[in-house]
Amino acid sequence: MATFSSTPVIHFGFNYYTSAASVRVAILDTPYSGGATLLSVALELVESTMATPSNGITPLTSGGRLDVPRVLLILTDSEATSGYEPAAAAASLRTNTQTTIIAVGVGSSVNQLQLESTASGPDDVYNAPNFSALANLVTPIATRVCTVAQETAGPTSAPTKNPTRNPTGNPTKNPTRNPTKNPTRNPTKNPTTSNPTKNPTKNPTKNPTKNPTKNPTRNPTTYCSATLDLMFLVDASISVNNAFLGGAPNTYQGLVLPFVASVAESVGGGIGLGDGSFRVSMASFATIAEEHVAFDAHTDAAALRAAIEASPYAAGATFTSLGFELVNNTVLPQARALSAGVPRVLIVIIDGPASIGFDASTAAADVRSQFTSILAVGVNGAISSELIAMASSPTGSTVFEVSEFNQLASLVPAISDQTCDIAQSFTMAPTKPPTTASPTQSPNCGINVVSDGECASVIDGMAHYPVLFKQKSQITK
């Protein structure tokens, strides 16, 4: 992908990414430059990067290939700057690289003759009255690209060595068109058991037991019996609601947020939202991170569900680390003190890889260090290694993955059970007796330090947080 203005720039080549999710992230992270419209220079850059004058496409840094069709989609919203008209450069690119050029013009400032001289033919010219109307061109352009690919694909490099030359000499004269009306009455004579049930029950019992188990392992209507501060961090990036990026329209509002509300209701059913024993907060992240539901904001289940399901959808990139930074800096300070012995659980829902520079492994470790258990839920294009890096150990019971958003609801029981198990087994007590009767009077730094002093550490910001520091302003409450 390349952009052009006063200076054309290639942002990534063919061999840079190996999944649709990572390509999507790279596209969304592309910077906007502004400037003039030097269209011919952009076309020349594409040709010089992809080809040489003598042999067409070659595997240079862009990874061009000789044996596959090539399509260039160019998008412009204005007439080319004088002296940088595209006709000659486009003709050279089409001829030397055997590339089909599809030209898309947006708005009324486009020079239609320039657009037509850039494209490979009249079927390769598209116009949109404004940028909002570009979405209407996705299907026809995608169809055209596929048509071009099918029409220009070269012969297979490995044809079938022994194709069938002679069809069968005796085809079936009268194939069965109708299935049998009288299937066999005598199925297999050798059943799998030598003693089948002689009189199987054909009718379910009319009088089920009136005395169920008095001591089930967990009351079916009340999941937890422990106090709990439960937090949710939800991926609200653009792919969730975009069908072309793995999601679907209204997925965030129709599937993701109801899933969050259902887990909260399932976990909190036996704790008590109104009396403060059970508290819920919710935040989301995309290009920015925001808190939507704060602890103690709602005291009944209906109000909590309404608040969760009314949370706005941000869209944008997947700045996962910003979400964890928000939890660490804004949400956790609102949680009850560690000395109160109240467990903390953070449930993270993610649908794709983190944007470059926003990996969450370090920020998630900071959250876990605050005696917070993390359950990671991956859906659609989530990366397993990223989920494992952010979740608490053992990850076999704290990482959950589904391939479709509509499968999230099936995870509610398992996630609720795991959350309650963590809450009920939580303890602040040490696992071993102290080794000395005289503990250290003034530890240098630690979570449990109780004093008026401060504990600080020096971090190589350039090495560990190359982008994070300049994004601090994007974290809002």
What layout of secondary structure does this protein have?
Layout: E1 2-3, E2 9-10, H1 20-28, H2 39-50, E3 51-52, E4 56-57, E5 70-76, H3 87-97, E6 99-106, H4 112-118, E7 125-128, H5 138-152, E8 228-235, H6 251-268, E9 278-285, E10 289-293, H7 301-309, H8 320-331, E11 344-350, H9 361-368, E12 372-379, H10 384-390, E13 399-402, H11 412-425, H12 461-464
Parallel strand pairs: 5-6, 6-7, 8-9, 8-11, 11-12, 12-13
Antiparallel strand pairs: 1-2, 3-4, 9-10
What key attributes describe this structure?
477 residues; disordered C terminus; 2 domains; six-stranded mixed sheet; alpha/beta; three-stranded parallel sheet; Rossmann fold; 13 strands
Structure report:
The protein is an alpha/beta fold and 477 residues long. It folds into two domains: 2-152, 3-Layer(aba) Sandwich (Rossmann fold); 228-428 and 456-474, 3-Layer(aba) Sandwich (Rossmann fold), CATH 3.40.50. Helix content is 26%, strand content 14%. The protein contains twelve helices and 13 strands. It has helices at 20-28, 39-50, 87-97, 112-118, 138-152, 251-268, 301-309, 320-331, 361-368, 384-390, 412-425, 461-464; strands spanning 2-3, 9-10, 51-52, 56-57, 70-76, 99-106, 125-128, 228-235, 278-285, 289-293, 344-350, 372-379, 399-402. The protein has a six-stranded mixed beta sheet with strand order 10-9-8-11-12-13, with helices on both faces. Strand 11, helix 9 (361-368) and strand 12 form a beta-alpha-beta unit. Helix 6 runs antiparallel to helix 7 (301-309). The longest helix is centred in the middle third of the chain and has 18 residues, at 251-268. The radius of gyration is 31 Å and the shape is elongated. The two termini are 35 Å apart. The relative contact order is 0.09.
